[in-house]
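Annex B. Sample input.
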Amino acid sequence: MKQNVIIIMSDSLRRDHVNVYGVPPPWRRPGHENEPFIRTPALDALAEDAMLFDRAYIASYPTIPNRTDLYTGRYGFAYRGWQPLEPEDVILPELVSAHGYTTALFFDTPPLGADNYNFMRGFDAWRWIRGQHGDRYITDPRVPTPINADRQSAKLGGNTTLSAQSGQPGIREGLPRSAHHNGGHGVVEKELSAGQLSVMGRYLGPSRAL
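Annex B, continued. Sample output.
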């Protein structure tokens, strides 16, 4: 009977931030010398029933080069940078699928789902958990995000401010929209009814309060 295999990658998790390794704190903590530096009870419990590696070294850095090594099983740091998977790469999900495994990828790191990067290739299913880092899936400046700057009123040029509340006046044609997630490029193309937003001609639904 086949065993389930789960690979978990936390980007980026340092050895001195996992309690089970017992590494001294990386900085002085006056008044807290006798207190635990870090608490990771779930990982500690896993380590009790698992193999704990104390000399494991990363092959490539940062995010995408490291995933490339994980997918291909090859040290790519010397000859590959931050780039898509190549069509000829032999990758893990395709290898295990050939042996009857059903594969799935769950991720929140935007580059894994970036255009033409191909890191979802070979998986039977995948789920992109949206909203992390510079994810561009939100284009409405009135939708709240974890980024504090995005919670402010959207300045649309001059003294014009877009209200977060439905029922306020519409947006004038040609005004640049608020910088939000994908660099702030693009303009509102047409006159909008109250409480609605369209970016580059695409209707994005009713507004929501910040």
